[in-house]
Amino acid sequence: MIRDELSPRKAALKNFGLSPQKLHLLDENRLEPLERFSMYLQVEKDGSAHTLRSYLNDLLDFLLFLQEEDHDVLAVDTILLRSYFTKISGVDFSRNKATGAGTGQSLMRTLSPRSQARKLSALKTYYRLLVRQGLLEENPVTMRAPKFYRSLPSFIPAQEMDSLLQTTEGETESSRPAELQLRDRAMIEMLYSTGMRVSELLSLSPSRVLDHNGEIVSEMRITGKGRKDRVVFIGDPARRAVAEYLAVRPRLRPKSESLFVNARGGALTDRGLREILNHYERNAGLRKRLYPHRFRHTFATDLLNDGADIRQVQEMLGHSSLSTTQIYTSVSRERLKEVYRNSHPRAKSPRETA
Protein backbone atom coordinates (compact mmCIF):
# COMPACT_ATOMS: atom_id res chain seq x y z
CA MET A 1 0.00 0.00 0.00
CA ILE A 2 1.28 3.48 -0.90
CA ARG A 3 1.18 5.78 2.09
CA ASP A 4 2.43 8.97 0.41
CA GLU A 5 0.08 10.65 -2.04
CA LEU A 6 1.19 10.86 -5.64
CA SER A 7 2.27 14.25 -6.97
CA PRO A 8 -0.15 15.99 -9.36
CA ARG A 9 1.96 14.93 -12.36
CA LYS A 10 2.03 11.32 -11.23
CA ALA A 11 -1.68 11.37 -10.41
CA ALA A 12 -2.41 12.58 -13.95
CA LEU A 13 -0.36 9.71 -15.39
CA LYS A 14 -2.08 7.23 -13.08
CA ASN A 15 -5.35 8.10 -14.83
CA PHE A 16 -4.00 6.37 -17.95
CA GLY A 17 -3.86 3.10 -16.00
CA LEU A 18 -0.22 3.28 -14.89
CA SER A 19 0.78 1.35 -11.79
CA PRO A 20 0.70 3.69 -8.77
CA GLN A 21 3.29 1.49 -7.03
CA LYS A 22 5.74 1.94 -9.90
CA LEU A 23 4.95 5.65 -10.30
CA HIS A 24 5.72 6.10 -6.63
CA LEU A 25 9.21 4.67 -7.21
CA LEU A 26 10.02 6.86 -10.21
CA ASP A 27 11.76 10.17 -9.54
CA GLU A 28 9.81 13.29 -10.44
CA ASN A 29 12.52 14.43 -12.87
CA ARG A 30 12.01 11.24 -14.93
CA LEU A 31 8.31 11.76 -15.67
CA GLU A 32 8.70 13.82 -18.85
CA PRO A 33 9.11 10.80 -21.20
CA LEU A 34 5.79 9.38 -19.98
CA GLU A 35 4.03 12.72 -20.48
CA ARG A 36 5.50 13.13 -23.97
CA PHE A 37 4.60 9.56 -24.95
CA SER A 38 1.05 9.78 -23.59
CA MET A 39 0.38 12.93 -25.62
CA TYR A 40 1.74 11.30 -28.77
CA LEU A 41 -0.27 8.08 -28.33
CA GLN A 42 -3.48 10.02 -27.68
CA VAL A 43 -3.25 12.75 -30.31
CA GLU A 44 -1.12 11.47 -33.18
CA LYS A 45 -1.53 7.70 -32.93
CA ASP A 46 -5.16 7.93 -31.75
CA GLY A 47 -4.47 4.78 -29.74
CA SER A 48 -7.04 2.77 -27.84
CA ALA A 49 -7.18 2.93 -24.04
CA HIS A 50 -5.67 -0.56 -23.92
CA THR A 51 -2.70 0.38 -26.13
CA LEU A 52 -2.16 3.59 -24.18
CA ARG A 53 -2.13 1.76 -20.84
CA SER A 54 0.12 -1.06 -22.07
CA TYR A 55 2.69 1.11 -23.86
CA LEU A 56 2.94 3.64 -21.03
CA ASN A 57 3.42 0.90 -18.44
CA ASP A 58 6.09 -0.64 -20.68
CA LEU A 59 7.93 2.68 -20.85
CA LEU A 60 7.52 3.13 -17.09
CA ASP A 61 9.22 -0.23 -16.49
CA PHE A 62 12.12 0.84 -18.69
CA LEU A 63 12.42 4.22 -16.95
CA LEU A 64 12.64 2.45 -13.59
CA PHE A 65 15.43 0.30 -15.00
CA LEU A 66 17.27 3.40 -16.25
CA GLN A 67 16.84 5.03 -12.85
CA GLU A 68 18.29 1.98 -11.15
CA GLU A 69 21.24 1.99 -13.58
CA ASP A 70 21.59 5.81 -13.32
CA HIS A 71 21.20 6.32 -17.09
CA ASP A 72 19.44 9.06 -19.01
CA VAL A 73 16.64 8.15 -21.41
CA LEU A 74 18.46 10.00 -24.21
CA ALA A 75 21.74 8.14 -23.61
CA VAL A 76 20.52 4.63 -24.36
CA ASP A 77 22.55 2.26 -26.52
CA THR A 78 22.28 -1.34 -27.71
CA ILE A 79 24.32 -2.69 -24.79
CA LEU A 80 22.00 -1.08 -22.24
CA LEU A 81 18.92 -2.33 -24.09
CA ARG A 82 20.30 -5.87 -24.17
CA SER A 83 20.95 -5.62 -20.45
CA TYR A 84 17.35 -4.58 -19.85
CA PHE A 85 15.85 -7.38 -21.93
CA THR A 86 18.22 -9.87 -20.32
CA LYS A 87 16.85 -8.79 -16.96
CA ILE A 88 13.18 -9.17 -17.88
CA SER A 89 13.58 -12.32 -19.98
CA GLY A 90 15.99 -14.46 -18.02
CA VAL A 91 17.99 -14.94 -21.25
CA ASP A 92 21.39 -13.39 -21.97
CA PHE A 93 20.76 -11.73 -25.35
CA SER A 94 24.47 -11.56 -26.13
CA ARG A 95 25.03 -15.26 -25.38
CA ASN A 96 21.50 -16.65 -25.83
CA LYS A 97 21.43 -18.67 -22.63
CA ALA A 98 19.46 -18.66 -19.39
CA THR A 99 20.72 -16.31 -16.71
CA GLY A 100 18.31 -16.76 -13.82
CA ALA A 101 17.57 -13.05 -14.03
CA GLY A 102 14.37 -11.45 -12.90
CA THR A 103 14.76 -12.19 -9.19
CA GLY A 104 16.21 -8.83 -8.13
CA GLN A 105 13.88 -5.86 -8.18
CA SER A 106 10.48 -6.65 -6.70
CA LEU A 107 8.56 -4.92 -9.49
CA MET A 108 10.62 -6.54 -12.28
CA ARG A 109 9.76 -10.13 -13.16
CA THR A 110 10.71 -12.57 -15.88
CA LEU A 111 8.29 -12.06 -18.77
CA SER A 112 6.98 -14.28 -21.53
CA PRO A 113 8.29 -13.82 -25.09
CA ARG A 114 4.93 -12.28 -26.05
CA SER A 115 5.22 -9.64 -23.31
CA GLN A 116 8.84 -8.96 -24.23
CA ALA A 117 7.81 -8.41 -27.86
CA ARG A 118 5.20 -5.86 -26.80
CA LYS A 119 7.70 -4.02 -24.58
CA LEU A 120 10.17 -3.92 -27.45
CA SER A 121 7.46 -2.50 -29.72
CA ALA A 122 6.62 0.17 -27.13
CA LEU A 123 10.25 1.26 -26.84
CA LYS A 124 10.72 1.30 -30.61
CA THR A 125 7.66 3.53 -30.92
CA TYR A 126 8.88 5.88 -28.18
CA TYR A 127 12.37 6.27 -29.60
CA ARG A 128 10.99 6.66 -33.12
CA LEU A 129 9.06 9.64 -31.71
CA LEU A 130 12.26 11.13 -30.26
CA VAL A 131 13.98 10.81 -33.65
CA ARG A 132 11.01 12.51 -35.35
CA GLN A 133 11.13 15.36 -32.87
CA GLY A 134 14.86 15.87 -33.40
CA LEU A 135 15.94 14.77 -29.92
CA LEU A 136 17.94 11.82 -31.27
CA GLU A 137 19.66 11.19 -34.59
CA GLU A 138 18.74 7.50 -34.79
CA ASN A 139 16.57 4.94 -33.05
CA PRO A 140 18.70 2.89 -30.61
CA VAL A 141 16.12 0.09 -30.47
CA THR A 142 17.27 -2.19 -33.28
CA MET A 143 16.80 -5.57 -31.59
CA ARG A 144 14.48 -8.15 -33.07
CA ALA A 145 11.45 -9.28 -31.12
CA PRO A 146 11.77 -12.75 -29.53
CA LYS A 147 9.88 -15.55 -31.22
CA PHE A 148 6.83 -16.87 -29.43
CA TYR A 149 4.26 -19.53 -30.14
CA ARG A 150 0.59 -18.72 -30.11
CA SER A 151 -1.35 -20.87 -27.67
CA LEU A 152 -4.65 -22.24 -28.92
CA PRO A 153 -7.62 -20.04 -27.96
CA SER A 154 -9.72 -21.36 -25.09
CA PHE A 155 -13.42 -21.56 -25.94
CA ILE A 156 -16.43 -22.26 -23.71
CA PRO A 157 -18.08 -25.65 -24.40
CA ALA A 158 -21.82 -25.52 -25.16
CA GLN A 159 -22.78 -27.27 -21.92
CA GLU A 160 -20.78 -24.78 -19.85
CA MET A 161 -22.26 -21.86 -21.77
CA ASP A 162 -25.76 -23.14 -20.96
CA SER A 163 -24.80 -23.51 -17.30
CA LEU A 164 -23.37 -20.00 -17.27
CA LEU A 165 -26.50 -18.44 -18.75
CA GLN A 166 -28.72 -20.35 -16.32
CA THR A 167 -26.64 -18.98 -13.46
CA THR A 168 -27.51 -15.42 -14.50
CA GLU A 169 -31.22 -16.13 -14.12
CA GLY A 170 -33.16 -14.99 -11.08
CA GLU A 171 -34.01 -18.37 -9.59
CA THR A 172 -30.32 -19.26 -9.18
CA GLU A 173 -29.13 -15.74 -8.28
CA SER A 174 -31.80 -14.64 -5.81
CA SER A 175 -29.22 -12.77 -3.67
CA ARG A 176 -28.26 -10.47 -6.57
CA PRO A 177 -30.52 -7.49 -7.44
CA ALA A 178 -32.66 -8.14 -10.51
CA GLU A 179 -31.31 -5.17 -12.45
CA LEU A 180 -27.73 -6.45 -12.00
CA GLN A 181 -28.71 -9.98 -13.06
CA LEU A 182 -30.34 -8.60 -16.20
CA ARG A 183 -27.31 -6.41 -16.92
CA ASP A 184 -24.95 -9.35 -16.48
CA ARG A 185 -27.00 -11.61 -18.72
CA ALA A 186 -27.20 -8.91 -21.40
CA MET A 187 -23.41 -8.46 -21.34
CA ILE A 188 -22.73 -12.19 -21.58
CA GLU A 189 -25.25 -12.65 -24.40
CA MET A 190 -23.77 -9.68 -26.28
CA LEU A 191 -20.19 -10.88 -25.92
CA TYR A 192 -21.09 -14.32 -27.26
CA SER A 193 -23.56 -13.18 -29.93
CA THR A 194 -21.38 -10.47 -31.48
CA GLY A 195 -17.79 -11.57 -30.84
CA MET A 196 -17.02 -8.03 -29.69
CA ARG A 197 -13.92 -7.14 -27.74
CA VAL A 198 -14.46 -5.94 -24.17
CA SER A 199 -13.46 -2.37 -25.05
CA GLU A 200 -16.02 -2.37 -27.88
CA LEU A 201 -18.80 -3.66 -25.62
CA LEU A 202 -18.09 -1.19 -22.82
CA SER A 203 -17.97 1.76 -25.22
CA LEU A 204 -21.60 1.21 -26.30
CA SER A 205 -24.32 3.68 -25.36
CA PRO A 206 -28.08 2.95 -25.23
CA SER A 207 -28.63 4.94 -28.42
CA ARG A 208 -26.21 2.68 -30.31
CA VAL A 209 -28.33 -0.42 -29.75
CA LEU A 210 -31.74 1.16 -30.44
CA ASP A 211 -33.34 1.90 -33.81
CA HIS A 212 -35.66 4.84 -34.53
CA ASN A 213 -38.62 2.79 -33.23
CA GLY A 214 -36.92 2.09 -29.90
CA GLU A 215 -36.29 -1.56 -30.79
CA ILE A 216 -32.96 -3.33 -30.28
CA VAL A 217 -31.06 -3.41 -33.57
CA SER A 218 -30.08 -6.71 -35.17
CA GLU A 219 -26.81 -5.32 -36.53
CA MET A 220 -24.64 -2.27 -36.04
CA ARG A 221 -21.37 -0.79 -37.24
CA ILE A 222 -18.62 -0.39 -34.66
CA THR A 223 -15.06 0.90 -34.68
CA GLY A 224 -12.66 -1.62 -33.22
CA LYS A 225 -8.96 -2.22 -32.77
CA GLY A 226 -6.76 -0.16 -35.07
CA ARG A 227 -9.75 2.14 -35.78
CA LYS A 228 -11.06 -0.55 -38.12
CA ASP A 229 -14.82 -0.41 -38.83
CA ARG A 230 -16.93 -3.55 -39.08
CA VAL A 231 -20.53 -4.71 -38.76
CA VAL A 232 -21.55 -6.95 -35.85
CA PHE A 233 -24.77 -8.95 -35.69
CA ILE A 234 -26.95 -9.34 -32.60
CA GLY A 235 -28.93 -12.57 -32.26
CA ASP A 236 -32.46 -12.72 -30.87
CA PRO A 237 -31.47 -14.02 -27.39
CA ALA A 238 -29.02 -11.14 -27.00
CA ARG A 239 -31.57 -8.61 -28.26
CA ARG A 240 -34.14 -9.84 -25.73
CA ALA A 241 -31.56 -9.73 -22.93
CA VAL A 242 -30.54 -6.15 -23.77
CA ALA A 243 -34.19 -5.05 -24.01
CA GLU A 244 -34.94 -6.54 -20.58
CA TYR A 245 -31.88 -4.82 -19.12
CA LEU A 246 -32.75 -1.44 -20.65
CA ALA A 247 -36.19 -1.66 -19.05
CA VAL A 248 -34.63 -1.75 -15.56
CA ARG A 249 -31.46 0.30 -16.25
CA PRO A 250 -33.05 3.50 -14.78
CA ARG A 251 -33.12 1.75 -11.38
CA LEU A 252 -29.32 1.94 -11.34
CA ARG A 253 -29.59 5.75 -11.61
CA PRO A 254 -27.04 5.97 -14.41
CA LYS A 255 -24.62 8.88 -14.24
CA SER A 256 -22.91 7.75 -17.44
CA GLU A 257 -23.90 7.55 -21.10
CA SER A 258 -22.49 4.00 -21.20
CA LEU A 259 -24.96 1.22 -21.91
CA PHE A 260 -23.56 -0.95 -19.13
CA VAL A 261 -23.22 0.77 -15.76
CA ASN A 262 -22.16 -0.45 -12.34
CA ALA A 263 -24.26 -0.60 -9.18
CA ARG A 264 -23.47 3.07 -8.47
CA GLY A 265 -24.52 4.22 -11.93
CA GLY A 266 -21.02 4.85 -13.24
CA ALA A 267 -19.58 3.42 -16.44
CA LEU A 268 -18.62 -0.23 -16.03
CA THR A 269 -14.88 -0.79 -16.44
CA ASP A 270 -12.87 -3.68 -17.83
CA ARG A 271 -11.89 -4.62 -14.29
CA GLY A 272 -15.51 -4.46 -13.14
CA LEU A 273 -16.57 -6.81 -15.93
CA ARG A 274 -13.83 -9.28 -14.99
CA GLU A 275 -15.02 -9.29 -11.38
CA ILE A 276 -18.58 -9.98 -12.54
CA LEU A 277 -17.43 -12.90 -14.69
CA ASN A 278 -15.38 -14.28 -11.79
CA HIS A 279 -18.57 -14.31 -9.72
CA TYR A 280 -20.47 -16.33 -12.33
CA GLU A 281 -17.50 -18.60 -13.00
CA ARG A 282 -17.57 -19.74 -9.38
CA ASN A 283 -21.35 -20.16 -9.29
CA ALA A 284 -21.55 -22.02 -12.60
CA GLY A 285 -18.73 -24.39 -11.65
CA LEU A 286 -16.78 -23.83 -14.87
CA ARG A 287 -13.60 -25.83 -15.38
CA LYS A 288 -11.52 -22.99 -16.83
CA ARG A 289 -11.09 -19.33 -15.96
CA LEU A 290 -13.87 -17.19 -17.44
CA TYR A 291 -12.06 -14.17 -18.86
CA PRO A 292 -13.96 -11.85 -21.26
CA HIS A 293 -11.99 -12.75 -24.40
CA ARG A 294 -13.11 -16.40 -24.12
CA PHE A 295 -16.50 -15.33 -25.47
CA ARG A 296 -14.81 -13.97 -28.59
CA HIS A 297 -12.85 -17.21 -28.94
CA THR A 298 -16.08 -19.19 -28.55
CA PHE A 299 -17.88 -17.01 -31.10
CA ALA A 300 -15.19 -17.68 -33.73
CA THR A 301 -14.79 -21.38 -32.94
CA ASP A 302 -18.53 -22.07 -33.09
CA LEU A 303 -18.86 -20.27 -36.43
CA LEU A 304 -16.04 -22.32 -37.98
CA ASN A 305 -17.33 -25.58 -36.51
CA ASP A 306 -20.71 -24.93 -38.11
CA GLY A 307 -19.21 -24.34 -41.55
CA ALA A 308 -18.62 -20.59 -41.76
CA ASP A 309 -15.97 -19.49 -44.26
CA ILE A 310 -12.78 -18.35 -42.54
CA ARG A 311 -12.72 -15.05 -44.44
CA GLN A 312 -16.26 -14.31 -43.28
CA VAL A 313 -15.18 -15.01 -39.70
CA GLN A 314 -12.17 -12.74 -40.23
CA GLU A 315 -14.52 -9.95 -41.29
CA MET A 316 -16.84 -10.47 -38.31
CA LEU A 317 -13.91 -10.45 -35.87
CA GLY A 318 -12.33 -7.39 -37.47
CA HIS A 319 -8.94 -9.04 -37.95
CA SER A 320 -6.62 -7.19 -40.33
CA SER A 321 -4.67 -10.37 -41.10
CA LEU A 322 -6.14 -13.75 -42.04
CA SER A 323 -3.31 -15.46 -40.13
CA THR A 324 -4.77 -14.12 -36.88
CA THR A 325 -8.09 -15.81 -37.65
CA GLN A 326 -6.48 -19.06 -38.82
CA ILE A 327 -5.49 -20.00 -35.29
CA TYR A 328 -9.16 -20.85 -34.70
CA THR A 329 -9.00 -23.52 -37.40
CA SER A 330 -6.52 -25.37 -35.18
CA VAL A 331 -9.08 -25.36 -32.38
CA SER A 332 -11.70 -26.74 -34.78
CA ARG A 333 -9.32 -29.51 -35.89
CA GLU A 334 -8.65 -30.47 -32.28
CA ARG A 335 -12.40 -30.69 -31.69
CA LEU A 336 -12.83 -32.88 -34.78
CA LYS A 337 -10.05 -35.17 -33.53
CA GLU A 338 -11.86 -35.54 -30.22
CA VAL A 339 -15.12 -36.45 -32.00
CA TYR A 340 -13.22 -38.98 -34.12
CA ARG A 341 -11.49 -40.59 -31.15
CA ASN A 342 -14.73 -40.83 -29.19
CA SER A 343 -16.95 -42.02 -32.04
CA HIS A 344 -15.03 -44.08 -34.58
CA PRO A 345 -14.55 -47.76 -33.59
CA ARG A 346 -11.10 -47.95 -35.22
CA ALA A 347 -9.95 -44.84 -33.39
CA LYS A 348 -10.46 -46.38 -29.96
CA SER A 349 -7.77 -48.31 -28.12
CA PRO A 350 -8.27 -52.08 -27.54
CA ARG A 351 -8.95 -51.37 -23.87
CA GLU A 352 -11.78 -48.97 -24.79
CA THR A 353 -13.40 -51.43 -27.22
CA ALA A 354 -13.11 -54.46 -24.90
Task: Give a written overview of the molecule.
- The chain is mostly helical.
- It folds into 2 domains: 8-132, no CATH class; 158-343, Intergrase catalytic core (hpI Integrase, Chain A, Orthogonal Bundle).
- The chain is 52% helix and 4% strand.
- The chain is built from 15 helices and 4 strands.
- The chain has a two-stranded antiparallel ribbon. It has a two-stranded antiparallel sheet with strand order 3-4.
- Strand 3 (219-223) and strand 4 (229-233) form a beta hairpin.
- Helix 7 (158-167) crosses helix 11 (270-284) and helix 8 runs antiparallel to helix 10.
- It is globular and about 60 Å long.
- It starts with 7 loop residues before the first helix and ends with a helix.
Question: Could you give the order of strands across the largest sheet?
Answer: 1-2
Give me the strand/helix succession: HHHHHEEHHHHEEHHHHHH
Count of β-strands: 4
Q: Which consecutive residue ranges, at least 5 long each, have pLDDT under 50?
A: 91-109
CATH class placement of the largest domain: Mainly Alpha
Mean pLDDT: 83
Strand content: under 5%
Using only C-alpha atoms, the radius of gyration works out to 24 Å
CATH architecture of the largest domain: Orthogonal Bundle
**Describe the biggest sheet?**
2 strands, antiparallel
| CATH H-level superfamily title of the largest domain | Intergrase catalytic core
Number of helices: 15
The geometry reads as globular
Number of spatially distinct domains = 2
Distance between termini?
61 Å
CATH fold topology of the largest domain: hpI Integrase, Chain A
Structural class by helix and strand composition: mainly alpha
Relative helix content? 40-55%
